[in-house]
Amino acid sequence: MTIHIAIVGSTTFVETVSHAAPKFDDVRFSHFTYAHPREAADIATQLGSFDGVFFSGSFPYAYASPFLNETIAHHVVQDETVLLTTVLYATLTQKLALDEVTIDVNEPERLHTIFTSFTDLTQPAVMKIHPDVDFSDVFRFHASHQQRDTKLAVTSIERVHRQLLEEGFNSQLMIEPVSTVIRHLEKLIDQVRRHLADLSQFAVVLYASTSASLHEYLRTMRHQGHVEIQDDTILLLTTKGEIVHALEEATLSPRDDDSLIGIGYGTDYKTAFEHARIALSASTEQQLRIVDAAKRLSFPASGETVQYRVTDEIAFDMVKRIGISPLNVGKILGFSKRKHEFTAKDLTDYLGVSRRTTERLIKKLHDGGFVDVIGEEMSYTQGRPRAVYIFKLPS
C-alpha cells in the first residue's frame, strides 16, 4: 500500500524536502507552498485525503490543526540542534558576540539550556514567539535593537526575515539542518505506517440478531467484508479500518435496529472472533461494545467518549466470566486493594449503592470464585450476624 504525505511549508522548505528526502518505495509526496504561515489553515481545508501531513514548523501546524480532522500530522521541531547550529553559524561567520544578536524562538528555555553551559558568554536579546504573535511586533523587536546596539537578527519566521532584509537590516533565518528535517519526516512516516497497520487488523462484528432485514442491510452495505448467520447471531468479518469508518458514518447497523453489537479486533481471525464474543456478552446497557487487540473493553456510545476501559487481566476475566459491568469491576478491584476481608456493609458503603445491589454483586463474585465466605462478624445489636468474605483474586 502506498502512503500519501502532504508537505506544507514555504517554497524554500518544500524544495529542501524535495531534494533531500530519502526515496521511499511506498511513499508519495505532494507539495503545498504558502507565502505566509497562516495560509496553512486554508491549505488544510483543501487537502482532501492524505495519510499524513508534514509541516515546516509549529506555526503552520498550529494554524492548520483545527482543520485536519483526524489526519496524522507532524512538524519540524525547533530543538537544541536547530538553535545551536544557527547561533554558531551566525556568530562565527559574522564574527559577532552574542550580545550583538537578537533572537526570536518558540521556547526560550531551550536556548537558555544551551547558554547555561557557557557561563562566561554574554547573552543575546531574546523574544518568545507563539502562533498568535503579531509578525510586525517581531519585526519591530529586531529592528529597534539593530538601530541601537545589535548587528544581527536571527529569526524563526521567514516572512520577518524577508521584511528585515528588504528594509536594510542584517538578518539570519533559523537554520534547520537537513538531518533534523528528514528525521522528523521519517518520524511522521513511521507513525502513519503504525496507524495503517492498526487499521488493517481483523475485525469481527457479532450482532445479537438473525433478522433477515439486518442480514440484507449488511450484505448490501460496503463494509468490504463477509457476512453470514451463525447460530443466533449475524457475523460480519472485515478490517478495523472499515469498522472505524462505519462508526464515524453511523452505518454499522440500520438506524431503527437496536440489536446488541459486539466488535472484536485482533491480529488474526480467531482472536478477533473471541474478542467479539466477549464484547457481545458483556453486562451493560450499551448497545455497542468493543474489545480491541490489547483486550481493552470499551463502550463508545454514539457521540460520547469511551466511559471505561478494562486494561487489567483480572478485570477482563471478571467481565468475561461473571458478567459484572466494567465500571463495577474497576470499583471492586479498587476496594480489594484496601480491604482483603470485608462484609456486605463495607462494600455497600464503598460503592455507594443499595444493600440489595451489593448482595447481588457478592453472589456473582462468589459464584465466579472471586470471593469466599470465611465466617461471621458478631453483632452487638439485634439482627443477623454479618457474613465475612475474603477476596480470592490472582496475585
TrEMBL record:
InterPro entries assigned: WH-like_DNA-bd_sf, WH_DNA-bd_sf
The name this protein goes by in its record: Uncharacterized protein
Record Gene3D superfamilies: Winged helix-like DNA-binding domain superfamily/Winged helix DNA-binding domain
Superkingdom field: Bacteria
